Amino acid sequence: MQDRLKSRVWDxxxxxxxxxxxxxxxxxxxxxxxxxxxxxxxxxxxxxxxESDKKMIVMQCSGRFDDKKQLIYEGDIVNGHCGVYWGKMLxxxxxxxxxxxxxxxxxxLLPFVSDPMFVEILGNKYENPELLEGTDxxx
Length: 139
What we know:
4-stranded antiparallel β-sheet
């Protein structure tokens, strides 16, 4: 699978991030997938998660890597260089334009260059909200 087609899910109730243990059904439900030994490695969809999935937050992968070869997802907080700006930025995705941007303080959007250089993922806005303290993104 191409990296840009990957996604991750934040479960705000359990405060956990899911990378490879979920599916999004054709009707839009998000369900946890579990592998059971007694099922000989077959995947089982845990139907009990379907009630809480409306609160789950899906984030798409940009398909790009930071300097440490980690995939960059929307919602990531990065420290890096974009044009003349150097500093902490939030990775956002514009659904209408199907594009990723770096959002710096005061809401200014900077283009997400094809191969970001000098960019390091510090964390993400769900697991590490303290990284946004002192910015206009802190909610």
